[in-house]
Design a protein that fits this description.
The structure holds two protein chains of two kinds. By secondary structure, chain A is mainly α. Chain A contains 15 helices and no strands. Chain A has a single domain, classed as MetI-like fold (Orthogonal Bundle), CATH 1.10.3720.10. Classes of the chains: A mainly alpha, B mainly alpha.
Chain lengths: 305, 335
Protein backbone atom coordinates (compact mmCIF):
# COMPACT_ATOMS: atom_id res chain seq x y z
CA UNK A 1 0.00 0.00 0.00
CA UNK A 2 2.46 2.55 1.22
CA UNK A 3 4.87 1.78 -1.62
CA UNK A 4 2.27 2.41 -4.26
CA UNK A 5 1.48 5.96 -3.25
CA UNK A 6 4.85 6.95 -1.86
CA UNK A 7 6.38 7.84 -5.24
CA UNK A 8 3.41 10.01 -6.10
CA UNK A 9 3.75 11.88 -2.87
CA UNK A 10 7.46 12.52 -3.03
CA UNK A 11 7.31 13.32 -6.72
CA UNK A 12 4.30 15.58 -6.43
CA UNK A 13 5.90 18.92 -5.64
CA UNK A 14 8.45 18.66 -8.45
CA UNK A 15 5.97 17.96 -11.19
CA UNK A 16 4.12 20.31 -13.47
CA UNK A 17 1.18 22.26 -12.14
CA UNK A 18 -1.48 19.91 -13.53
CA UNK A 19 0.14 16.93 -11.92
CA UNK A 20 0.57 18.85 -8.75
CA UNK A 21 -3.08 19.42 -8.70
CA UNK A 22 -3.82 15.79 -9.30
CA UNK A 23 -1.27 14.51 -6.85
CA UNK A 24 -2.85 15.76 -3.64
CA UNK A 25 -6.10 14.15 -4.62
CA UNK A 26 -4.39 10.81 -4.86
CA UNK A 27 -2.67 11.48 -1.60
CA UNK A 28 -5.90 12.48 0.00
CA UNK A 29 -7.11 9.03 -0.83
CA UNK A 30 -3.91 7.65 0.60
CA UNK A 31 -5.12 6.87 4.06
CA UNK A 32 -8.39 8.65 3.83
CA UNK A 33 -10.20 5.78 2.26
CA UNK A 34 -10.03 6.18 -1.49
CA UNK A 35 -6.92 4.06 -1.98
CA UNK A 36 -7.04 0.44 -3.02
CA UNK A 37 -6.59 -2.30 -0.50
CA UNK A 38 -3.49 -4.46 -0.87
CA UNK A 39 -3.34 -8.25 -0.56
CA UNK A 40 -2.73 -8.00 3.17
CA UNK A 41 -5.89 -5.99 3.65
CA UNK A 42 -7.83 -8.63 1.74
CA UNK A 43 -6.21 -11.41 3.74
CA UNK A 44 -7.19 -9.87 7.07
CA UNK A 45 -10.69 -9.05 5.85
CA UNK A 46 -11.21 -12.59 4.60
CA UNK A 47 -10.09 -13.92 7.97
CA UNK A 48 -12.47 -11.50 9.72
CA UNK A 49 -15.30 -12.57 7.43
CA UNK A 50 -14.60 -16.25 8.10
CA UNK A 51 -14.54 -15.66 11.86
CA UNK A 52 -17.80 -13.72 11.61
CA UNK A 53 -19.60 -16.19 9.39
CA UNK A 54 -18.21 -19.54 10.51
CA UNK A 55 -20.29 -19.83 13.71
CA UNK A 56 -23.36 -19.05 11.62
CA UNK A 57 -22.46 -21.66 9.04
CA UNK A 58 -21.69 -24.18 11.74
CA UNK A 59 -25.10 -23.51 13.29
CA UNK A 60 -26.59 -24.89 10.09
CA UNK A 61 -24.18 -27.85 10.20
CA UNK A 62 -24.96 -28.75 13.80
CA UNK A 63 -28.69 -28.20 13.34
CA UNK A 64 -28.72 -30.88 10.66
CA UNK A 65 -26.75 -33.52 12.59
CA UNK A 66 -27.55 -35.90 15.41
CA UNK A 67 -26.49 -35.48 18.99
CA UNK A 68 -24.12 -38.44 18.71
CA UNK A 69 -22.42 -36.97 15.66
CA UNK A 70 -21.86 -33.69 17.50
CA UNK A 71 -20.33 -35.19 20.61
CA UNK A 72 -17.96 -37.52 18.77
CA UNK A 73 -14.81 -35.81 17.55
CA UNK A 74 -13.88 -34.83 14.97
CA UNK A 75 -16.74 -32.33 14.88
CA UNK A 76 -18.62 -32.44 11.58
CA UNK A 77 -17.98 -29.54 9.20
CA UNK A 78 -20.58 -30.32 6.55
CA UNK A 79 -24.36 -30.29 6.91
CA UNK A 80 -26.06 -33.60 7.63
CA UNK A 81 -29.49 -34.95 6.88
CA UNK A 82 -31.32 -34.56 10.19
CA UNK A 83 -32.53 -30.99 9.91
CA UNK A 84 -36.20 -31.92 9.54
CA UNK A 85 -36.05 -34.42 12.41
CA UNK A 86 -34.43 -31.86 14.68
CA UNK A 87 -36.96 -29.21 13.69
CA UNK A 88 -39.76 -31.60 14.64
CA UNK A 89 -38.18 -32.20 18.05
CA UNK A 90 -37.77 -28.45 18.58
CA UNK A 91 -41.44 -27.92 17.85
CA UNK A 92 -42.33 -30.80 20.18
CA UNK A 93 -40.34 -29.32 23.02
CA UNK A 94 -41.43 -25.70 22.78
CA UNK A 95 -44.21 -23.97 20.92
CA UNK A 96 -41.88 -22.30 18.42
CA UNK A 97 -44.75 -21.10 16.26
CA UNK A 98 -46.15 -19.18 19.19
CA UNK A 99 -42.69 -17.92 20.13
CA UNK A 100 -42.04 -16.68 16.59
CA UNK A 101 -45.43 -14.98 16.44
CA UNK A 102 -44.89 -13.42 19.86
CA UNK A 103 -41.47 -12.12 18.90
CA UNK A 104 -42.88 -10.67 15.70
CA UNK A 105 -45.68 -8.93 17.59
CA UNK A 106 -43.37 -7.54 20.24
CA UNK A 107 -40.61 -6.43 17.89
CA UNK A 108 -43.17 -5.03 15.43
CA UNK A 109 -45.04 -2.98 18.02
CA UNK A 110 -41.84 -1.74 19.62
CA UNK A 111 -40.32 -0.81 16.27
CA UNK A 112 -43.44 1.02 15.04
CA UNK A 113 -44.00 3.05 18.16
CA UNK A 114 -40.31 3.79 18.67
CA UNK A 115 -40.04 5.07 15.13
CA UNK A 116 -43.15 7.23 15.45
CA UNK A 117 -42.34 8.77 18.82
CA UNK A 118 -38.63 9.10 18.04
CA UNK A 119 -39.39 10.95 14.84
CA UNK A 120 -41.67 13.39 16.64
CA UNK A 121 -39.19 14.00 19.45
CA UNK A 122 -36.22 14.01 17.12
CA UNK A 123 -37.92 16.62 14.95
CA UNK A 124 -38.67 18.80 17.97
CA UNK A 125 -35.08 18.58 19.19
CA UNK A 126 -33.63 19.17 15.73
CA UNK A 127 -35.78 21.96 14.33
CA UNK A 128 -38.09 23.55 16.87
CA UNK A 129 -37.11 26.19 19.39
CA UNK A 130 -38.42 25.80 22.91
CA UNK A 131 -37.34 26.52 26.44
CA UNK A 132 -35.10 23.90 27.97
CA UNK A 133 -34.36 22.20 24.68
CA UNK A 134 -30.66 21.58 25.30
CA UNK A 135 -31.16 20.49 28.88
CA UNK A 136 -33.88 18.07 27.87
CA UNK A 137 -31.76 16.65 25.07
CA UNK A 138 -28.94 16.09 27.53
CA UNK A 139 -31.37 14.18 29.73
CA UNK A 140 -32.43 12.06 26.77
CA UNK A 141 -28.81 11.11 26.06
CA UNK A 142 -28.10 10.52 29.75
CA UNK A 143 -30.98 8.06 30.07
CA UNK A 144 -29.18 5.78 27.63
CA UNK A 145 -26.71 4.95 30.38
CA UNK A 146 -29.29 3.56 32.80
CA UNK A 147 -29.03 -0.22 32.77
CA UNK A 148 -32.28 -2.23 32.77
CA UNK A 149 -31.13 -3.93 35.96
CA UNK A 150 -32.08 -0.78 37.83
CA UNK A 151 -35.67 -0.84 36.74
CA UNK A 152 -36.67 -4.50 36.52
CA UNK A 153 -37.49 -5.11 40.18
CA UNK A 154 -40.21 -2.44 40.51
CA UNK A 155 -41.42 -3.22 37.00
CA UNK A 156 -41.74 -6.86 37.97
CA UNK A 157 -43.71 -5.90 41.06
CA UNK A 158 -45.97 -3.70 38.97
CA UNK A 159 -46.71 -6.33 36.34
CA UNK A 160 -47.29 -8.87 39.12
CA UNK A 161 -49.82 -6.55 40.72
CA UNK A 162 -51.72 -5.92 37.52
CA UNK A 163 -51.48 -9.56 36.47
CA UNK A 164 -49.34 -9.04 33.39
CA UNK A 165 -46.62 -11.59 34.17
CA UNK A 166 -46.36 -13.78 31.10
CA UNK A 167 -48.28 -11.33 28.91
CA UNK A 168 -46.74 -9.58 25.96
CA UNK A 169 -47.78 -6.07 26.97
CA UNK A 170 -45.39 -6.31 29.93
CA UNK A 171 -42.55 -6.48 27.41
CA UNK A 172 -43.94 -4.01 24.87
CA UNK A 173 -44.98 -1.10 27.08
CA UNK A 174 -41.62 -0.31 28.70
CA UNK A 175 -39.91 -0.08 25.32
CA UNK A 176 -42.40 2.06 23.41
CA UNK A 177 -39.77 4.70 22.79
CA UNK A 178 -36.00 4.65 23.15
CA UNK A 179 -33.53 7.43 23.81
CA UNK A 180 -31.33 5.98 21.11
CA UNK A 181 -34.11 6.45 18.57
CA UNK A 182 -34.77 10.05 19.59
CA UNK A 183 -31.09 10.84 19.29
CA UNK A 184 -30.83 9.00 15.97
CA UNK A 185 -33.73 10.91 14.42
CA UNK A 186 -32.51 14.20 15.80
CA UNK A 187 -29.10 13.68 14.20
CA UNK A 188 -30.70 12.80 10.90
CA UNK A 189 -33.31 15.55 10.80
CA UNK A 190 -31.02 18.35 11.91
CA UNK A 191 -29.07 17.80 8.68
CA UNK A 192 -31.67 16.46 6.29
CA UNK A 193 -34.57 18.82 6.92
CA UNK A 194 -34.12 22.39 5.68
CA UNK A 195 -35.74 24.89 8.03
CA UNK A 196 -37.09 26.72 4.96
CA UNK A 197 -39.43 23.83 4.24
CA UNK A 198 -41.03 24.15 7.64
CA UNK A 199 -41.27 27.92 7.38
CA UNK A 200 -42.85 27.72 3.96
CA UNK A 201 -45.45 25.30 5.28
CA UNK A 202 -46.14 27.66 8.20
CA UNK A 203 -46.61 30.58 5.84
CA UNK A 204 -49.15 28.46 4.00
CA UNK A 205 -51.04 28.19 7.27
CA UNK A 206 -50.22 24.58 8.02
CA UNK A 207 -50.67 23.67 11.66
CA UNK A 208 -48.00 21.61 13.34
CA UNK A 209 -49.54 18.18 12.86
CA UNK A 210 -49.93 18.96 9.18
CA UNK A 211 -46.24 19.93 9.05
CA UNK A 212 -45.33 16.62 10.66
CA UNK A 213 -47.42 14.71 8.19
CA UNK A 214 -46.54 16.44 4.95
CA UNK A 215 -43.05 17.81 5.59
CA UNK A 216 -41.27 15.88 8.34
CA UNK A 217 -42.39 12.33 7.57
CA UNK A 218 -41.53 12.43 3.86
CA UNK A 219 -38.04 13.76 4.58
CA UNK A 220 -37.46 11.40 7.49
CA UNK A 221 -38.69 8.28 5.73
CA UNK A 222 -35.30 6.69 4.93
CA UNK A 223 -34.04 7.24 8.47
CA UNK A 224 -37.34 5.95 9.86
CA UNK A 225 -36.93 2.76 7.86
CA UNK A 226 -33.39 2.22 9.11
CA UNK A 227 -34.32 2.99 12.70
CA UNK A 228 -37.27 0.64 12.41
CA UNK A 229 -34.99 -2.18 11.30
CA UNK A 230 -32.42 -1.52 14.02
CA UNK A 231 -35.08 -1.39 16.72
CA UNK A 232 -36.72 -4.53 15.35
CA UNK A 233 -33.42 -6.41 15.51
CA UNK A 234 -32.73 -5.13 19.01
CA UNK A 235 -36.19 -5.97 20.26
CA UNK A 236 -36.17 -9.40 18.61
CA UNK A 237 -32.89 -10.20 20.36
CA UNK A 238 -33.78 -8.59 23.68
CA UNK A 239 -33.24 -11.02 26.51
CA UNK A 240 -32.96 -9.70 30.06
CA UNK A 241 -36.41 -8.23 30.72
CA UNK A 242 -38.41 -10.71 28.58
CA UNK A 243 -36.62 -13.55 30.39
CA UNK A 244 -37.90 -12.14 33.69
CA UNK A 245 -41.35 -11.00 32.60
CA UNK A 246 -42.40 -13.88 30.35
CA UNK A 247 -42.76 -17.58 31.01
CA UNK A 248 -42.18 -20.70 28.93
CA UNK A 249 -45.95 -20.88 28.35
CA UNK A 250 -46.00 -17.64 26.36
CA UNK A 251 -42.40 -16.87 25.41
CA UNK A 252 -40.62 -14.79 22.84
CA UNK A 253 -38.12 -16.70 20.76
CA UNK A 254 -35.21 -15.76 23.01
CA UNK A 255 -37.02 -16.84 26.15
CA UNK A 256 -37.96 -20.13 24.48
CA UNK A 257 -34.29 -20.62 23.54
CA UNK A 258 -33.18 -20.16 27.12
CA UNK A 259 -35.71 -22.86 28.04
CA UNK A 260 -34.38 -25.24 25.39
CA UNK A 261 -30.81 -24.68 26.51
CA UNK A 262 -31.36 -25.49 30.17
CA UNK A 263 -34.09 -27.32 32.02
CA UNK A 264 -34.04 -30.82 30.56
CA UNK A 265 -31.52 -33.25 31.94
CA UNK A 266 -30.99 -35.10 28.70
CA UNK A 267 -30.00 -32.32 26.33
CA UNK A 268 -29.88 -33.12 22.64
CA UNK A 269 -27.24 -30.67 21.46
CA UNK A 270 -28.26 -30.85 17.84
CA UNK A 271 -31.81 -29.91 18.78
CA UNK A 272 -30.59 -27.01 20.90
CA UNK A 273 -28.54 -25.60 18.04
CA UNK A 274 -31.45 -26.22 15.70
CA UNK A 275 -33.63 -24.05 17.93
CA UNK A 276 -30.94 -21.36 17.84
CA UNK A 277 -31.04 -21.58 14.06
CA UNK A 278 -34.82 -21.12 14.01
CA UNK A 279 -34.46 -18.06 16.21
CA UNK A 280 -31.72 -16.51 14.12
CA UNK A 281 -32.90 -17.34 10.62
CA UNK A 282 -35.60 -14.64 10.32
CA UNK A 283 -33.11 -11.90 11.13
CA UNK A 284 -30.43 -13.40 8.91
CA UNK A 285 -32.89 -13.35 6.02
CA UNK A 286 -33.62 -9.70 6.76
CA UNK A 287 -29.89 -9.06 6.79
CA UNK A 288 -29.35 -10.88 3.54
CA UNK A 289 -31.96 -8.70 1.83
CA UNK A 290 -31.47 -5.36 3.59
CA UNK A 291 -27.92 -5.72 4.90
CA UNK A 292 -26.59 -2.78 2.95
CA UNK A 293 -29.32 -0.46 4.18
CA UNK A 294 -28.71 -1.54 7.76
CA UNK A 295 -24.98 -0.97 7.33
CA UNK A 296 -25.55 2.48 5.91
CA UNK A 297 -28.01 3.19 8.71
CA UNK A 298 -25.53 2.33 11.43
CA UNK A 299 -22.81 4.34 9.77
CA UNK A 300 -25.14 7.29 9.15
CA UNK A 301 -26.23 7.38 12.76
CA UNK A 302 -22.66 7.23 13.95
CA UNK A 303 -21.09 9.90 11.80
CA UNK A 304 -22.58 12.76 13.69
CA UNK A 305 -22.55 11.35 17.19
CA UNK B 1 -58.02 23.74 17.77
CA UNK B 2 -61.52 23.12 16.58
CA UNK B 3 -62.94 23.13 20.08
CA UNK B 4 -61.52 26.50 21.02
CA UNK B 5 -62.73 28.06 17.80
CA UNK B 6 -66.19 26.79 18.56
CA UNK B 7 -65.93 28.22 22.05
CA UNK B 8 -65.62 31.74 20.66
CA UNK B 9 -68.60 31.41 18.39
CA UNK B 10 -70.55 30.16 21.38
CA UNK B 11 -69.39 32.98 23.62
CA UNK B 12 -70.14 35.86 21.27
CA UNK B 13 -73.78 36.24 20.29
CA UNK B 14 -74.30 35.21 16.65
CA UNK B 15 -75.10 38.16 14.41
CA UNK B 16 -78.89 38.28 14.05
CA UNK B 17 -80.23 37.19 10.70
CA UNK B 18 -76.80 36.43 9.33
CA UNK B 19 -75.97 32.91 8.34
CA UNK B 20 -73.69 31.50 11.06
CA UNK B 21 -70.24 31.27 9.65
CA UNK B 22 -68.78 27.80 9.70
CA UNK B 23 -65.96 28.07 12.20
CA UNK B 24 -62.39 27.69 11.20
CA UNK B 25 -62.65 28.44 7.52
CA UNK B 26 -59.78 30.11 5.75
CA UNK B 27 -59.67 33.88 5.19
CA UNK B 28 -62.34 34.81 7.73
CA UNK B 29 -62.27 38.42 8.92
CA UNK B 30 -60.82 40.05 12.02
CA UNK B 31 -62.03 38.32 15.18
CA UNK B 32 -61.51 34.65 14.23
CA UNK B 33 -58.18 35.48 12.64
CA UNK B 34 -57.08 37.02 15.93
CA UNK B 35 -57.90 33.74 17.53
CA UNK B 36 -56.19 32.03 14.72
CA UNK B 37 -52.93 33.81 15.32
CA UNK B 38 -53.20 33.20 19.05
CA UNK B 39 -53.88 29.54 18.36
CA UNK B 40 -51.00 29.52 15.95
CA UNK B 41 -48.72 30.90 18.63
CA UNK B 42 -50.02 28.36 21.13
CA UNK B 43 -49.51 25.66 18.54
CA UNK B 44 -45.89 26.59 17.88
CA UNK B 45 -45.22 27.03 21.59
CA UNK B 46 -46.82 23.85 22.82
CA UNK B 47 -46.25 21.42 19.99
CA UNK B 48 -42.53 20.82 20.72
CA UNK B 49 -43.46 19.70 24.22
CA UNK B 50 -46.20 17.51 22.84
CA UNK B 51 -43.70 15.84 20.53
CA UNK B 52 -41.17 15.05 23.22
CA UNK B 53 -43.83 14.16 25.79
CA UNK B 54 -44.14 10.46 24.84
CA UNK B 55 -40.46 9.90 25.47
CA UNK B 56 -40.46 11.65 28.81
CA UNK B 57 -43.71 10.05 29.96
CA UNK B 58 -42.36 6.63 29.04
CA UNK B 59 -39.08 7.39 30.74
CA UNK B 60 -40.78 8.68 33.87
CA UNK B 61 -43.00 5.63 34.14
CA UNK B 62 -40.58 2.87 33.13
CA UNK B 63 -37.21 4.46 33.87
CA UNK B 64 -37.05 7.15 36.49
CA UNK B 65 -39.75 5.92 38.83
CA UNK B 66 -38.49 2.31 38.94
CA UNK B 67 -34.93 3.59 39.36
CA UNK B 68 -35.82 5.58 42.46
CA UNK B 69 -38.14 2.88 43.73
CA UNK B 70 -35.31 0.38 43.43
CA UNK B 71 -33.25 2.66 45.64
CA UNK B 72 -36.03 2.69 48.23
CA UNK B 73 -36.46 -1.08 48.02
CA UNK B 74 -32.76 -1.52 48.63
CA UNK B 75 -33.30 -0.08 52.12
CA UNK B 76 -36.03 -2.59 52.89
CA UNK B 77 -36.40 -6.25 53.49
CA UNK B 78 -38.95 -7.40 50.93
CA UNK B 79 -39.79 -10.75 49.39
CA UNK B 80 -41.50 -11.43 46.08
CA UNK B 81 -45.14 -10.50 46.58
CA UNK B 82 -44.56 -9.48 50.21
CA UNK B 83 -44.58 -6.21 52.13
CA UNK B 84 -41.56 -4.04 52.66
CA UNK B 85 -39.88 -3.75 56.05
CA UNK B 86 -37.42 -0.91 56.65
CA UNK B 87 -33.94 -2.18 57.43
CA UNK B 88 -31.79 0.84 56.57
CA UNK B 89 -28.46 -0.04 55.05
CA UNK B 90 -28.57 -3.64 56.16
CA UNK B 91 -28.81 -4.97 52.60
CA UNK B 92 -25.66 -3.10 51.68
CA UNK B 93 -23.70 -4.21 54.73
CA UNK B 94 -24.69 -7.81 54.13
CA UNK B 95 -23.45 -7.47 50.57
CA UNK B 96 -20.19 -6.16 51.92
CA UNK B 97 -19.81 -9.33 54.00
CA UNK B 98 -20.80 -11.69 51.19
CA UNK B 99 -17.93 -13.39 49.36
CA UNK B 100 -20.11 -14.14 46.32
CA UNK B 101 -20.89 -10.46 45.91
CA UNK B 102 -17.18 -9.65 45.80
CA UNK B 103 -16.64 -12.50 43.39
CA UNK B 104 -19.40 -11.17 41.16
CA UNK B 105 -17.91 -7.70 41.33
CA UNK B 106 -14.47 -8.98 40.34
CA UNK B 107 -15.92 -11.18 37.59
CA UNK B 108 -17.90 -8.27 36.17
CA UNK B 109 -14.72 -6.22 36.09
CA UNK B 110 -12.48 -8.87 34.52
CA UNK B 111 -15.14 -9.99 32.05
CA UNK B 112 -15.74 -6.35 31.17
CA UNK B 113 -12.08 -5.73 30.44
CA UNK B 114 -11.43 -8.88 28.41
CA UNK B 115 -14.62 -8.45 26.42
CA UNK B 116 -14.30 -4.75 25.55
CA UNK B 117 -10.61 -3.97 25.16
CA UNK B 118 -9.76 -6.56 22.47
CA UNK B 119 -13.13 -5.97 20.88
CA UNK B 120 -12.63 -2.24 20.37
CA UNK B 121 -9.01 -2.63 19.25
CA UNK B 122 -10.02 -5.20 16.66
CA UNK B 123 -12.95 -3.04 15.57
CA UNK B 124 -10.54 -0.16 15.01
CA UNK B 125 -8.27 -2.28 12.83
CA UNK B 126 -11.20 -3.74 10.96
CA UNK B 127 -12.65 -0.31 10.29
CA UNK B 128 -9.30 0.82 8.92
CA UNK B 129 -9.27 -2.12 6.50
CA UNK B 130 -12.88 -1.58 5.49
CA UNK B 131 -12.04 2.02 4.70
CA UNK B 132 -9.84 0.98 1.78
CA UNK B 133 -11.26 0.87 -1.68
CA UNK B 134 -12.01 -2.81 -2.04
CA UNK B 135 -13.69 -5.25 -4.30
CA UNK B 136 -16.79 -6.61 -2.60
CA UNK B 137 -16.62 -3.84 -0.03
CA UNK B 138 -20.36 -4.05 0.60
CA UNK B 139 -20.12 -7.79 1.14
CA UNK B 140 -17.34 -7.44 3.72
CA UNK B 141 -19.30 -4.81 5.60
CA UNK B 142 -22.45 -6.90 5.76
CA UNK B 143 -20.46 -10.03 6.62
CA UNK B 144 -18.73 -8.53 9.64
CA UNK B 145 -22.09 -7.18 10.82
CA UNK B 146 -23.84 -10.56 10.50
CA UNK B 147 -23.04 -11.65 14.10
CA UNK B 148 -24.98 -8.58 15.27
CA UNK B 149 -28.10 -10.21 13.81
CA UNK B 150 -27.78 -13.21 16.08
CA UNK B 151 -29.22 -12.98 19.55
CA UNK B 152 -27.35 -13.41 22.79
CA UNK B 153 -29.24 -16.64 23.40
CA UNK B 154 -28.60 -18.17 19.97
CA UNK B 155 -24.94 -17.15 19.87
CA UNK B 156 -24.32 -18.44 23.37
CA UNK B 157 -25.94 -21.80 22.64
CA UNK B 158 -23.74 -22.27 19.58
CA UNK B 159 -20.54 -21.19 21.33
CA UNK B 160 -21.27 -23.57 24.20
CA UNK B 161 -20.93 -26.35 21.65
CA UNK B 162 -17.75 -24.92 20.12
CA UNK B 163 -16.16 -24.46 23.56
CA UNK B 164 -17.18 -27.83 24.98
CA UNK B 165 -14.06 -29.17 26.72
CA UNK B 166 -14.65 -32.78 25.65
CA UNK B 167 -15.90 -32.64 22.08
CA UNK B 168 -15.85 -28.94 21.16
CA UNK B 169 -14.18 -27.80 17.98
CA UNK B 170 -11.96 -25.27 19.72
CA UNK B 171 -10.26 -27.83 21.92
CA UNK B 172 -9.79 -30.03 18.86
CA UNK B 173 -8.10 -27.15 17.05
CA UNK B 174 -5.94 -26.37 20.08
CA UNK B 175 -5.09 -30.05 20.29
CA UNK B 176 -3.65 -29.88 16.78
CA UNK B 177 -1.52 -26.97 17.95
CA UNK B 178 -0.30 -29.04 20.86
CA UNK B 179 -2.30 -27.25 23.53
CA UNK B 180 -3.92 -29.74 25.86
CA UNK B 181 -7.44 -30.02 27.09
CA UNK B 182 -8.61 -26.53 28.20
CA UNK B 183 -11.42 -26.59 30.76
CA UNK B 184 -13.60 -23.90 29.19
CA UNK B 185 -16.36 -24.28 31.74
CA UNK B 186 -14.93 -25.26 35.09
CA UNK B 187 -11.79 -23.16 35.31
CA UNK B 188 -12.24 -19.49 35.86
CA UNK B 189 -10.11 -17.80 33.22
CA UNK B 190 -10.90 -20.13 30.32
CA UNK B 191 -14.61 -19.78 31.09
CA UNK B 192 -14.35 -16.01 31.21
CA UNK B 193 -12.37 -15.96 27.97
CA UNK B 194 -15.03 -18.14 26.32
CA UNK B 195 -17.84 -15.84 27.48
CA UNK B 196 -16.01 -12.71 26.38
CA UNK B 197 -15.43 -14.38 23.02
CA UNK B 198 -19.20 -14.48 22.54
CA UNK B 199 -19.48 -10.79 23.38
CA UNK B 200 -16.56 -9.88 21.17
CA UNK B 201 -17.84 -11.95 18.27
CA UNK B 202 -21.26 -10.30 18.38
CA UNK B 203 -20.14 -6.69 18.70
CA UNK B 204 -16.81 -6.22 16.90
CA UNK B 205 -18.35 -5.74 13.46
CA UNK B 206 -20.93 -3.29 14.75
CA UNK B 207 -18.29 -1.13 16.39
CA UNK B 208 -16.10 -1.40 13.31
CA UNK B 209 -18.90 0.12 11.24
CA UNK B 210 -19.28 2.96 13.71
CA UNK B 211 -15.54 3.66 13.50
CA UNK B 212 -15.68 3.34 9.73
CA UNK B 213 -18.34 6.02 9.56
CA UNK B 214 -16.23 8.34 11.65
CA UNK B 215 -13.14 7.60 9.56
CA UNK B 216 -14.97 8.47 6.37
CA UNK B 217 -15.75 11.88 7.81
CA UNK B 218 -12.09 12.74 8.46
CA UNK B 219 -11.16 15.59 6.10
CA UNK B 220 -8.81 14.45 3.36
CA UNK B 221 -6.52 17.48 3.67
CA UNK B 222 -5.40 16.27 7.10
CA UNK B 223 -3.94 13.23 5.38
CA UNK B 224 -2.47 15.41 2.66
CA UNK B 225 -0.68 17.51 5.22
CA UNK B 226 0.59 14.44 7.05
CA UNK B 227 1.75 12.89 3.79
CA UNK B 228 3.58 16.09 2.86
CA UNK B 229 5.36 15.85 6.20
CA UNK B 230 6.49 12.41 5.15
CA UNK B 231 4.31 10.48 7.58
CA UNK B 232 4.03 6.79 6.85
CA UNK B 233 0.75 4.92 6.64
CA UNK B 234 1.07 3.74 10.20
CA UNK B 235 1.95 7.24 11.46
CA UNK B 236 -1.04 8.65 9.57
CA UNK B 237 -3.27 6.11 11.26
CA UNK B 238 -1.88 6.92 14.70
CA UNK B 239 -1.53 10.69 14.31
CA UNK B 240 -4.43 11.59 12.02
CA UNK B 241 -7.08 8.88 12.06
CA UNK B 242 -7.12 8.09 15.77
CA UNK B 243 -7.19 11.73 17.01
CA UNK B 244 -9.84 12.67 14.43
CA UNK B 245 -12.24 9.95 15.48
CA UNK B 246 -11.50 10.33 19.19
CA UNK B 247 -15.07 11.40 20.11
CA UNK B 248 -16.40 8.27 18.43
CA UNK B 249 -13.85 6.13 20.27
CA UNK B 250 -14.93 7.63 23.59
CA UNK B 251 -18.55 7.05 22.62
CA UNK B 252 -17.95 3.36 21.92
CA UNK B 253 -15.87 2.96 25.08
CA UNK B 254 -18.70 4.37 27.17
CA UNK B 255 -21.37 2.29 25.42
CA UNK B 256 -19.40 -0.94 25.69
CA UNK B 257 -18.52 -0.28 29.32
CA UNK B 258 -22.19 0.11 30.11
CA UNK B 259 -22.93 -3.07 28.17
CA UNK B 260 -20.18 -4.98 29.92
CA UNK B 261 -21.40 -3.91 33.35
CA UNK B 262 -24.78 -5.48 32.65
CA UNK B 263 -23.51 -8.76 31.20
CA UNK B 264 -26.24 -11.30 31.87
CA UNK B 265 -27.48 -13.49 29.03
CA UNK B 266 -24.12 -14.78 27.80
CA UNK B 267 -22.90 -16.20 31.15
CA UNK B 268 -26.41 -17.39 32.01
CA UNK B 269 -26.84 -19.45 28.87
CA UNK B 270 -23.18 -20.40 28.64
CA UNK B 271 -23.54 -21.97 32.08
CA UNK B 272 -26.64 -23.96 31.12
CA UNK B 273 -28.00 -25.61 34.27
CA UNK B 274 -25.55 -23.77 36.51
CA UNK B 275 -25.79 -20.47 34.66
CA UNK B 276 -27.53 -18.42 37.33
CA UNK B 277 -24.71 -18.94 39.81
CA UNK B 278 -22.17 -18.42 37.05
CA UNK B 279 -20.73 -21.91 37.17
CA UNK B 280 -20.45 -24.35 40.05
CA UNK B 281 -17.95 -22.15 41.85
CA UNK B 282 -19.41 -18.76 40.83
CA UNK B 283 -16.37 -18.46 38.59
CA UNK B 284 -18.19 -16.33 36.03
CA UNK B 285 -21.19 -14.99 37.93
CA UNK B 286 -21.61 -11.33 37.06
CA UNK B 287 -23.33 -8.67 39.18
CA UNK B 288 -26.34 -8.92 36.91
CA UNK B 289 -26.60 -12.68 37.44
CA UNK B 290 -26.01 -12.22 41.15
CA UNK B 291 -28.87 -9.74 41.25
CA UNK B 292 -31.16 -12.15 39.40
CA UNK B 293 -30.05 -14.95 41.72
CA UNK B 294 -30.88 -12.86 44.80
CA UNK B 295 -34.14 -11.51 43.46
CA UNK B 296 -35.73 -14.35 41.56
CA UNK B 297 -34.08 -17.52 42.89
CA UNK B 298 -33.69 -16.58 46.56
CA UNK B 299 -36.61 -14.15 46.41
CA UNK B 300 -34.96 -11.30 48.32
CA UNK B 301 -35.93 -8.28 46.27
CA UNK B 302 -34.42 -5.86 48.79
CA UNK B 303 -30.99 -7.38 48.44
CA UNK B 304 -31.36 -7.60 44.68
CA UNK B 305 -32.21 -3.88 44.65
CA UNK B 306 -29.09 -3.17 46.65
CA UNK B 307 -27.05 -5.00 44.01
CA UNK B 308 -28.76 -2.92 41.33
CA UNK B 309 -27.87 0.31 43.10
CA UNK B 310 -24.30 -0.82 43.55
CA UNK B 311 -24.24 -1.28 39.78
CA UNK B 312 -25.54 2.26 39.34
CA UNK B 313 -22.85 3.62 41.66
CA UNK B 314 -20.18 1.71 39.75
CA UNK B 315 -21.46 3.06 36.45
CA UNK B 316 -21.47 6.61 37.83
CA UNK B 317 -17.93 6.08 39.09
CA UNK B 318 -16.72 4.71 35.77
CA UNK B 319 -18.55 7.53 33.97
CA UNK B 320 -16.87 10.14 36.16
CA UNK B 321 -13.44 8.61 35.59
CA UNK B 322 -14.04 8.47 31.85
CA UNK B 323 -15.25 12.06 31.83
CA UNK B 324 -12.16 13.23 33.70
CA UNK B 325 -10.01 11.24 31.31
CA UNK B 326 -11.72 12.75 28.28
CA UNK B 327 -11.37 16.25 29.74
CA UNK B 328 -7.69 15.92 30.50
CA UNK B 329 -7.12 14.32 27.13
CA UNK B 330 -8.82 17.19 25.40
CA UNK B 331 -6.87 19.78 27.33
CA UNK B 332 -3.60 18.06 26.52
CA UNK B 333 -4.40 18.08 22.84
CA UNK B 334 -5.92 21.51 22.82
CA UNK B 335 -2.76 23.00 24.40
Amino acid sequence: MAQITEPVMSAGPRHSSTQQRRAPRLRAGGAGGQSKGGPLAYLFLIVATLVSLFPLYWTVVAASRTDTELVTPPTPLLPGSHLIDNLKIVWDQVDMTKALINSTIVAGCVALSTVLFSTLAGFAFAKLKFRGRNALLTIVVATMTIPPQLTVIPLYQIITNVGWVGHLQSVILPSLVAAFGVFFMRQFLSEALPIELIEAARVDGAHSLRIIWSVVFPVARPAMAVLGMLVFVQSWNDFFWPFIALSQQNPTVQVALAGVGSGNHQIDHAVVVCAALVATLPLLLVFAVLGRQIVSGITAGAVKS
Amino acid sequence: MATSVRATSDGSPPPSGAVPRPPGRRGTPASPSGWRSRLYRLDTKASPYAYIAPFFLCFAAFGLFPLIYTGWLSLNEVQLGGHAKWVGFHNYTSLWDNEFFWKALRNTFTLGVISTVPQLLMALGLAHLLNYQLRARGFFRVAVLAPYATSIAAASLVFVQLFNPDYGMINQLLGHLGIGHVQWASSKWPAQIAISTIVTWRWTGYNALIYLAAMQAVPADLYEAAALDGASRWRQFINVTIPSIRPTIFFTIIVSTIGATQLFGEPLIYGGGVGVTGGTDHQYQTLSLYMYDKGWQVGELGQASAVAWVMLLILLLIGAVQLLFIRSNRRKLGG
